[in-house]
Amino acid sequence: MITLVALNARYIHASLGMRYLLANLGALRPRARLLELTIHERPSDVVERILADAPEVVALGCYIWNVEQTLAVARTLAAVAPDVQIVVGGPEVSHETERQPIASVADYVIRGEGDVAFAELAAALVAGERPSAHIIDAAPPDLATLALPYDLYDDDDIAHRVIYVEASRGCPFRCEFCLSALDKGVRAFDETAFLAAMQRLLDRGARHFKFVDRTFNLAIDSAVRILRFFRERLASAGDVLLHFELVPDRLPQPLRDEIAQFPAGSLQFEVGVQSMDDEVNRRISRRQSRERLVDNISFLRERGVYLHTDLIAGLPGESLASFGRGFDQLFALGPAEIQVGVLKRLNGAPIARHDEAFGMIYSSAPPYEVLATADVSFAELQQIKRFARYWDLVANSGNFRSLLPLLCAGDSPFEAFFELSRWLHTQIGQTHSIALDRLAVLLVRFLEAQRGEDSTHVRALLADDYQRSNRSLPRQLGSHDGSERARRRATKPARQRRWLRD
To answer: Do 228 and 108 share a domain, yes or no?
Structure first.
């Protein structure tokens, strides 16, 4: 038996990588099983589930967000079942492998795309052979020969999980914080076969598709055809949500024309802005036209596209003040979400070349976040992390859309919300496990007591937010019955549904 183990961040996620390994096992596929759990499981419980199948080979996928939990599982498995052959792979162990603790625990490490290499290794192991190479460098497979994994999403996946798909692999850009900077170009899957697989998923009821392509809008003709494929099926498929990652400054007219024909809320674009500082972008080899970025985001917002934008704090040479200016510029464009992240030093990423010149200090533990730079102190980065978490709870969640403009009022939305985030931390000392009603009461208290805002106005705005979500106001603020407005179908996540409401 071959057991493929995926430790996902949450149940709603599904492992595309492990499904590729399973789909390409060939004759060994009937002897293999996919075991999907989450990083919140106890390692001993995960190992118990693994050993229930009495496997000969166990494959573990390693990512920056699960490597610590996966290491604990591997160590436990090696201790209690030393005859089981442990194979690890994934981006976290594909670079600087020798310094990875899990590499010394595993019997074999596959670096790179393991779709074919794992099948070859598994066949040898099941046959009783023990290849001498501990580390196996996998050559990029010919995508035309790979078995697509989409039929391996079962009915429960389709009903309750995000369906991950990819039309291409690789990225042509060289942004130094990203492992895609190491890619040797972009390869596309056969479009006919890919769209046929998408049709089967639609026929089975799949409605939420998340494309993991690094640059979906790189090949414009292909992007247009894929969008048109889904658009032409909206009438029969109903409420579909398509998620793509886009290069922010590349949106030529053919793509705009296709996007404009989608109903509001059907498209979600993840737009990696990362920095609005031109000099910082040049320093990290990121090519980005600010003028086209601004125009494209404005166009997409006007067409009802749900925009998830990303900013990275702690990039080499960027100060807290310049980051704040970039945040304000992006905020003014009105995206649905601004995801504030802190720079991570991914294993193998070229960003490491700036360490000495810009005083980059990183955590040695996953996810390897920057702790301080020559331009941003440790204390400031701690404050940015809290800012990011509170921003996600208040702004990105969509729970306080009416209240947010008041919270961000002034010359600088960043400085206004930064003040709120510092105050919130003094009041509760935490950034997680904050009940919605408790947060609402704190926001009202901040606006009334700290900002001197009119109480009637503040509470009216909050009442509108609660009505939008069909909730009753916290008892501390007075009762208010939730609206009976019809909800959007649940194929769209909660924050997207809230964003669609007037």
So the answer is: no
